[in-house]
């Protein structure tokens, strides 16, 4: 009996670790930086830094305080050249993909704007498994072990 309880407890703990962690996003502020972006754990400071970067090209960007965060991936082009690229944490109520460009940058074309709420969802590194995939596989293996030893 204790063995089953232990196995189920370990399985639940392993699955819940991902839920307990804070959101992690890729961050970069230029097209060159975005070729090898860094990872950042989302905080108010990180989200407000992204808001500051957004305010360079966009109107009416506010600094906020919140416990909720999204990841942002944004790219602007002009004459088929990437002019501006930004990845980072953002407060959902900033509505980054709906912001209006400042008149000086109105000729830029928004070729990509994505907000998402999963770890590192604002860039998909090739050849890497996401933590969600690992969690699903671990859950299936855990259930198989419970069935075998039950």
What features would you describe in this structure?
The protein is an alpha+beta fold and 150 residues long. It has one domain: CD59, CATH 2.10.60. The chain is 35% helix and 23% strand. The strands form two sheets. A three-stranded antiparallel sheet has the order 4-3-5. A two-stranded antiparallel sheet has the order 1-2. A hairpin with a 2-residue loop joins strand 3 and strand 4. Helix 1 packs antiparallel against helix 3. It is elongated. It starts with a helix and ends with a helix. The model has no long low-confidence stretch (mean pLDDT 84). This is Protein sleepless. Keywords: Membrane, Signal, Transmembrane, Transmembrane helix.
Structure at a glance:
Keywords: Membrane, Signal, Transmembrane, Transmembrane helix. This protein has 150 residues and is of the alpha+beta class.
Looking at the structure, the CATH topology is CD59
Helix tally?
Answer: 3
Our count of domains comes out at 1
Class computed from helices, strands and strand pairing: alpha+beta
SSE order in H/E notation? HEEHEEEH
- How far apart the termini lie comes to 9 Å
CATH class: Mainly Beta
Task: Give Rg in angstroms.
Answer: 20 Å
Low-pLDDT stretches: none
Residue-averaged pLDDT = 84
- The fraction of residues in strands falls at 15-25%
Number of strands: 5
Q: Categorize the overall geometry.
A: elongated
What order do the strands of the largest sheet run in, or round the barrel if closed?
Answer: 4-3-5
Largest sheet: 3 strands, antiparallel
CATH superfamily: CD59
């Amino acid at each position: 009996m204790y063995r089953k309880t232990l196995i189920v407890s370990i399985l639940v703990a392993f699955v819940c670790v991902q839920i307990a962690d804070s959101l992690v996003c890729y961050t970069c502020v230029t097209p060159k930086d975005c070729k090898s972006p860094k990872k950042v754990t989302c905080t108010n400071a990180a989200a407000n830094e992204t808001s500051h970067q957004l305010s360079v090209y966009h109107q009416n960007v506010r600094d906020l305080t919140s416990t909720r965060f999204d990841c942002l991936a944004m790219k602007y082009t002009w004459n088929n050249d990437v002019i501006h690229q930004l990845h980072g944490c953002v407060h959902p109520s900033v509505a980054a993909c709906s912001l209006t460009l400042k008149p000086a940058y109105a000729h830029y074309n928004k070729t990509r704007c994505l907000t998402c709420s999963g770890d590192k969802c604002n860039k998909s590194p090739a050849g890497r498994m996401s933590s969600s995939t690992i969690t699903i596989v671990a859950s299936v293996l855990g259930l198989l072990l419970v069935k075998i030893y039950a």
